[in-house]
Amino acid sequence: QAPLVEAGGGLVQTGGSLRLSCVVSGRTFSALGWFRRPPGKDREYVAAISWSNGLQYYADSVKGRFAVSRDKVKNTVYLQMSSLKPEDTALYYCNVQTNWGQGTQVTVSS
Under a CB-based contact definition with an 8 Å cutoff, are residues 79 and 92 in contact? Predict the structure, then answer.
């Protein structure tokens, strides 16, 4: 079983919303991060959350539009994305320590 599995990507129009999920299995961890790789660009940081106290951190580019949360019972971290823009188009990954998920594609049409 893969340690990190993302889901929830898709195609959405500008201004729309999506919720990504990342299920974490087989490990304990202190924090989980979300990253993305836009087409033709390097991977970039999006957001992170502390597993213990739920403290959240955001890149300036998504602050006020994205919200990260966790469900300790389901061992899942969510990334709620709202007011999506074409520049949010990317492959989104979750990360715990040195482990990465396979990614889930988010495409925002203009």
Answer: yes
